[in-house]
Specification:
The chain is mostly helical. It is about 75% helix and about 0% strand. It has 16 helices and no strands. It has helices spanning about 10-70, 80-110, 120-135, 135-150, 155-165, 170-185, 190-200, 205-215, 225-235, 240-250, 255-270, 270-285, 290-300, 305-325, 325-330, 360-370. The longest helix is centred in the first third of the chain and has 61 residues, at about 10-70. The chain is flat.
């Protein structure tokens, strides 16, 4: 086949090539123009950031100067102010982390649902988490409890509701939900830890030991777990094992509460020099630890050093009266019980509240440590 091309067609390629080059040049010019504008914006943004950083530096310097001046005049305590500021920053960071964790958990709870009333279930779950985020925790938990009624085998949901009741100190309700969560997620070590502690507090010692041992062996070793085991061994008067677990609890978290607990155990065993050393350390870590001062007073009274004993009893009383002003009125009226007690007093009489013996500070520390132990093994969506 012979193709005949007219002579004029040889100039068409050159014309189209020139047109393409012009188009490319226009595009390049437009890109250069946009890039130039973007560079200018970045430079302005960087300049703004630098100015803000400089202003923040000057603001911080001004605040520090004001704090220094007020501290010199005795109006504020610089160390206390710094401690309060750090505590507030830490609390806000924890709240942000908790909010992110709740959002992840909400998605997981919805993914686990396999029933026929998905619409109602999603409504209860979403409403519950929104109310909790809006600081309406009671209403939010009630909404999630209604969701539990539609999905009794949803382990993440049961675990979350049980965790709430554990956090608020409602051991019986916590045990009910956590036990059901454990049935469907026995590999979740966090559930094992929380359930073990609630079982211990409710007097179910055998199951508590099994769960706490399982938690510590599989990665949820913590102050709370070892303290719980130690307290169970104390109930059995197995002092050697109790001492071992309390030492492990102190090693995991050398907090004032851990020093206080081990010091009380040594006091119970009449090893007063070791007890005094640990209790003094607890008061060094927290000068407002009234219970530790009280047990130090008991130690010196047992040693026959009444002056020292009286000194520490007065410190304990002053600390507790400062925290609870209502006690001052009862003291003046001659009524009321002593504000603090040895940790293991009355242990044989009370089965409930076994872990802390009514010591609210220790109970809070125990719950916080357990809830901060994020050792969780995801369960399969069966």
């Amino acid at each position: 086949m012979i193709i005949i091309e007219p002579p004029a067609s040889r100039y068409e390629f050159a014309e189209s090539s020139a047109s393409s080059e012009e188009h490319l040049l226009e595009r390049i010019s437009a890109l250069e123009n946009r890039l130039g504008r973007l560079t200018e914006r970045l430079e302005r943004g960087l300049d703004l950031l630098l100015r803000q950083a400089q202003n923040s530096y000057f603001d911080r310097a001004l605040v520090k100067a004001l704090i220094g001046l007020l501290t010199e005049d005795g109006i504020v305590e610089g160390s206390r102010l710094e401690k309060l500021w750090n505590a507030r920053c830490q609390r806000e960071a924890e709240e942000q982390e908790e909010s992110a964790r709740r959002d992840e958990l909400r998605v997981k709870i919805l993914a686990f649902y396999q029933g026929s009333e998905r619409g109602n279930f999603e409504q209860f779950v979403n409403e519950g988490f929104l109310l909790i985020e809006d600081q309406q925790v009671g209403r939010g938990i009630r909404s999630l409890q209604r969701a539990v009624g539609l999905a009794g085998g949803n382990a993440p949901l049961l675990s979350f509701v049980g965790e709430h009741f554990f956090r608020t100190g409602k051991s019986r309700l916590a045990q009910s939900y956590l036990a059901r969560a454990y049935e469907f997620a026995p590999a979740d070590m966090r559930v094992s830890l929380l359930l073990g502690l609630t079982c211990a507090d409710e007097g179910d010692t055998e199951r508590a030991k099994e769960l706490l041992n399982k938690a510590t062996q599989r990665g949820a070793s913590s102050f709370a777990a070892h303290y719980g085991l130690g307290r169970l061994f104390i109930a059995e008067e197995n002092w050697r094992k109790a001492l071992r677990e309390f030492k492990r609890a102190l090693a995991r978290k050398p907090s004032p509460e851990a020093h206080y607990a081990l010091g009380c155990l040594y006091y119970q065993l009449a090893r007063d020099s070791l007890a005094a050393r640990l209790l003094r350390k607890a008061t060094e870590l927290d000068a407002g630890y009234g219970e530790a001062f009280y047990v130090l007073g008991l130690i010196y009274r047992r040693a026959g050093q009444e002056k020292l004993a009286k000194k520490f009893f007065e410190k304990a009383e002053n600390v507790n009266l400062a925290r609870q002003p209502k006690l001052a009125g009862r003291k003046r009226a001659g009524g009321g019980k002593p504000p603090v007690f040895p940790l293991f007093q009355g242990l044989e009489r009370d089965a409930g509240g076994l872990l802390t013996g009514g010591n609210e500070r220790l109970a809070k520390a125990l719950r916080k440590d357990a809830l901060d132990t994020f050792v969780t093994v995801d369960v399969e969506n069966s």
